[in-house]
Amino acid sequence: MAIKQSSFPLRVLADLSLLFCILLAPVCSATTATAPATLLQLKSSLTDPEGVLSGWSPEADVCSWHGITCQPGEVDIVTGLNLSGYGLSGVIPPAIGGLISVESIDLSSNSLTGPIPPELGLLENLRTLLLFSNSLTGTIPPELGLLKNLEILRIGDNRLHGEIPPHLGSCTELETLGLAYCQLNGSIPAELGKLSHLQQLVLDNNTLIGNIPEQLAGCASLRVLSVADNMLQGNIPSFIGSFSDLQSLNLANNQFSGGILAEIGNLSGLTYLNLLGNGLTGTIPEELNQLSQLQVLDLSMNNISGNLSISTAQLKSLKYLVLSGNLLDGAIPEDLCAGDSSSLENLFLSGNNLGGSIEALLNCGALRSIDVSNNSFTGAIPSSIDRLSGLVNLALHNNSFTGSLPPQIGNLSNLEILSLFHNGLTGEIPPEIGRLQKLKLLFLYENQMSGTIPDELTNCTSLEEVDFFGNHFHGSIPERIGNLKNLAVLQLRQNDLSGPIPASLGECQSLQALALADNRLSGALPETFGQLAELSVVTLYNNSLEGPLPESLFQLKNLTVINFSHNRFSGSLVPLLGSSSLAVLALTNNSFSGVIPAAVARSRNMVRLQLGGNRLAGAIPAELGNLTRLTMLDLSFNNLSGDIPAELSRCTQLAHLKLDGNRLTGSVPSWLGELRSLGELDLSSNAFTGDIPAEIGNCSGLLKLSLSDNHLSGSIPPEIGRLTSLNVLNLNKNDLSGAIPAALRQCDKLYELRLSENALEGPIPPELGKLPELQVILDLSRNKLSGEIPASLGGLVKLERLNLSSNRLDGQIPPSLLKLTSLHLLNLSGNLLAGAVPAGLSGFPAASFEGNSELCGAPLPRCAPSSSARRLPGTEVAVIVAGIAVVSAAVCVALLYTMLRVWSNWRAVSVSNSDGEESAHGAGKWAAAAGDGKYWKVGSPVSAAAAAAGEKHSSGSETSVLHAGKSTEAAGAAKS
Fold first, then answer.
1. Taking Cα atoms as reference points, which of 756, 804, 749 lies closest to residue 775?
2. Which of 289, 274, 361 is nearest to 322 (CA)?
3. What is the DSSP string of 90-128?
4. In terms of C-beta density within 10 A (0-12 exposed, 13-18 middle, 19 or more buried), how is residue 266 classed?
5. Looking at residue 705, what is its pLDDT?
6. Could you tell me which of 440, 495, 429, 489 has the C-alpha nearest to residue 463?
7. Tell me, what's the pLDDT at 390?
8. Starting at the edge strand that comes first in sequence, how are the strands of the sheet with 663-664 ordered?
């Protein structure tokens, strides 16, 4: 019966041991004589694939059984059980608690399952228990705390979970406790601090949390403390500096913070110190240089700053120095390897802020590996680099090294890795590089190197990867490239190489990835390509390769990526279809002909099929619908005919569907609306008919929709307004009719809108002026649009091209267009526009405004004076004439009435001559101004302003046109 550790303190556990035995009476009644029977029960619980237990039988002496050790001179007193590493499976039976005389049990490195039996707690003589490297489950039995004589407990590398039982603190003789590589959680029990004899505490690779408990200071005999790969936190406890016998300290990959303890420098016997992958800050303590026995120092992947303050003049035993991924700055110190006594073999300083030259490293004569990548080192690679004669790995990439690669590099006869990419190296590859017979990896990409690829490189027969991407190498690929029999990766992309691909390349039969794209290679593919049986990725795009493909390519069954785009290949696609594992087939802009083979659909994992810009004919194979993982299908600019096969509706992951530039017919299928991943749909330049399906509005992620140059009819469905991510909408050159839907306003990410050469009618929706990202063009030309140009178009402040030509637009050009400061093309020609061209648009050519007979002003001829106002429509003229007649009649009646009244009363008026004269002129002191029913006193400021206002608006205001005569009359009265 297992006792729950959370409910019973250790003393209670001890007191209940008697009850434990009573409950397990069969086990507790065991004697030394029962050992054979107990072991036979163990045998029956195990599966023995190697038959190591076949000799376990009652007829044989138990002490002769395989894996059994007995006490010397005694009969049937079993002291040892060792069945390690025999592939045993099954469970450990509770009966194992009957081996009361056993001192050592080793069942490690098998495939045992089930829990650890709590009955092991009865084996009071047990000193060693090894159950590591199995598949045991459950929790660690707290009953193991009863093993007072236990010295070694190693049960790690299992599937144990739960917390570490504090009861283990009662195993006071324990020297080794190994619980690594399990799924233990919780904190490290403080009770472990009672283990004063403990020499090794290994708790790596669990999910332990919390701090290292202060009570652990009681483990004064510790030689190994390893708690790596947990979630421990807090500062590194200072008591660690008091473990005078400590030889190995591994706190890697936790969440420790604070600085590195200076007290660690007191651990004179320390040989291994690993603090990588924490959040440690501050500088490297000078005291670490006191660790004269230290062989491995790893402080990488922290936030340590300051200078590199390590000196192997004191750390004479140091072989590994790993400080990568910190914030160190400054230069490499001159005394890093002072004298010839340095043992430093491996130096890793990548991912810091170090700078200056690397000359100081030449003093480290024992170095085998150097990695100073991802820093800010400058200067040339030292020509005396060959002083490091034992160098195996040299990684200087991602720095700012300049100059050329010194020929002395060829003296590093042990070099296996040379990584110099992403620097500023220039010059040629020295031919001396051909002496590096052990070289496996050569990375020179993203430099400024030039010259030819030396033929001597083909002497480096151990090469496995060559990457020269992004340099300026010219000339041909070495003819003897086939000497590199071990070559798996050849990357020569983006250089200036020319000539043919050597036939000897077919001898590189280990080749898996070949990238020769972005060069000037020419000629045909050699037939020997078919020998590259391991080839998986081949990219030859952007060259001048030509001719039909060799039929031998069909033998390449492992191809996953083919990109031959932008060459001059011709003939059939069939040689490329021997593999059923293709993920990418990109052949755009060649001269392939024939039909698209249905065999393309054999590669069910294909994600990109790009055949655009060829001479392919026939129908789109319905079998392409089987490519359900396809994200890009580009068949554009071929001679394909027929309908879009309905089977393509199964390609629900399509993001790009390009069928433009063919001779496809039929209607645009409504099932396109089911392709919810679609980001680009281009069916332009075909012969599609019928309506635009409203279901396209369901493709909510659509960025580009182009249906131009077809024979589509009907109206633009307002559902397109649901495409709120749309950037490009091109419906040019169709037979669309009806109004432009105002719902396009919802496509507020549009930066290109083309609706020209249709039969659209009605006004331009003012909502189009609220498309804030419209930039490339707004083209509504060659339609039947009418009404005025909306002033709201002035809100398209990013617009570069506006074409409203060849419509029936009338009214004036709105001054708001002056806000379009990014506009560099404007075409309003061929409309019914009138009035003056706004002055701010005069910089556009006259062709932008031609065909509007009533437009005037630069760049068109000057406008006539204000009296030559624009001609009004007939209905407006009729209203004006009727108005003038009514007003004139009213004026005449008023004048007649006034004259009659004056005539009837003039005799009754008795005034002096001066009064009469004043009265005679008084009638002339009042005059109608602007004809709007308001009157101003002639000569007053008000009447002068009114007259001026009438002149100012006479050319553009209908009111001023209506009353031009009245205003002139008022102005004349003012002058008199």
1. 749
2. 274
3. EE--GGGGG-TT--EEE--SSEEESBPPGGGGG-TT--E
4. middle
5. 98
6. 440
7. 95
8. 450-452, 472-475, 496-499, 520-523, 544-548, 568-571, 591-595, 615-619, 639-642, 663-664
Which pLDDT score is estimated for 73?
78
Residue 558: C-alpha distances to residues 493, 538, 572, 603 (Å): 22, 11, 20, 11
138: phi then psi, degrees, rounded to nearest 5: 85, -165
Structure tokens belonging to residue 860? 């068109």
| SS (HEC) of 127-196 | CEEECCCCCCECCCCHHHHHCCCCCEEECCCCCCEEECCHHHHHCCCCCEEECCCCEEECCCCHHHHHCC
Q: What percent of the chain has pLDDT over 70?
A: 85
Cβ atoms of 153 and 127 within 8 Å: the answer is no
The residue assigned the tokens 């089911």 is: 674
pTM: predicted TM-score of the whole model, two decimal places: 0.80
Query: How would DSSP label each residue in 583-642?
Result: SEEE--SSEEEEEPPGGGGG-TT--EEE--SSEEEEEPPGGGGG-TT--EEE--SSEEEE
Residue type, 654: L
Distance CA 51, CA 86 (A): 9
Angle between helices 964-975 and 941-952 (to 10 degrees): 140
Region 741-767: what's the mean pLDDT?
Answer: 97
Q: What is the pLDDT of residues 474-486, one digit of tens each?
A: 999 999 999 999 9
pLDDT at site 951: 32
pLDDT, position 444: 98
What is the chain's alpha carbon radius of gyration, rounded to the nearest angstrom? 46
Q: Cβ contacts of residue 334 below 8 Å, gap of 6+?
A: 360, 363
pLDDT above 80 for 428 = yes
Neighbour-count burial for 315-330, b at 16+ CB within 10 Å, e otherwise: beebbbbbbbbbebee
Q: Give residue 339's pLDDT band: very low, low, confident or very high (50, 70, 90).
A: low
Phi, psi of 228, rounded to the nearest 5 degrees: -65, 155
Alpha-carbon separation of residue 219 from 213, 235, 803 (angstroms): 11, 19, 85
Give yes or no for residue 948 having a pLDDT over 50: no
Alpha carbon of residue 827 to chain centroid: 42
CA–CA dist 535, 557 (Å, integer) = 8
pLDDT in tens, 693-725: 999 999 999 999 999 999 999 999 999 999 999
Determine the residue type at 234: G
DSSP 8-state code for residue 815 = G
From residue 929, give the alpha-carbon distance in Å to each of 488, 565, 936, 958, 976. Answer: 96, 78, 7, 16, 15
Question: Phi/psi class of residue 311: alpha, beta or left (left: φ > 0; alpha: ψ in -120 to 50)?
Answer: beta
CA 618 to centroid of chain Cα atoms: 38
Place of tokens 């037939």: 527
Q: Do 677 and 656 touch, CB atoms closer than 8 A?
A: no
Residue 696's alpha-carbon distances to 484, 594, 613, 671, 707, in angstroms, are 54, 32, 26, 8, 12
Place of tokens 């059939």: 572
Which residues neighbour 889 within 8 Å (Cβ) at sequence distance 6 or greater? none
Per DSSP, the three-state class of 697 is: helix
* β-sheet with 784-788: strand ranges across: 689-690, 711-714, 735-738, 759-762, 784-788, 808-811, 832-836, 854-856
Q: Let me know the angle formed at the C-alpha of 688 by 687 and 694, rounded to the nearest 5 degrees.
A: 160
CB atoms inside a 10 Å sphere around CB 533: 12
Query: Given phi > 0 = left and psi -120 to 50 = alpha, else beta, which region is 325?
Result: left
Rounded Cα distance, 287 and 318, in Å = 15
Q: Are 276 and 298 within 8 A, CB to CB?
A: yes
Comparing 80-94, 308-322, 611-625, 649-663, the range with the smallest average pLDDT is 308-322
For residues 21 and 19, what is the distance between their CA atoms, to the nearest angstrom?
Answer: 5
> Please, is 510 exposed, middle or buried when counting C-beta atoms within 10 Å of its C-beta (0-12, 13-18, 19+)?
middle
Give how far Cα 380 sits from Cα of 384, 425, 562, 654, 682, Å: 11, 8, 39, 50, 52
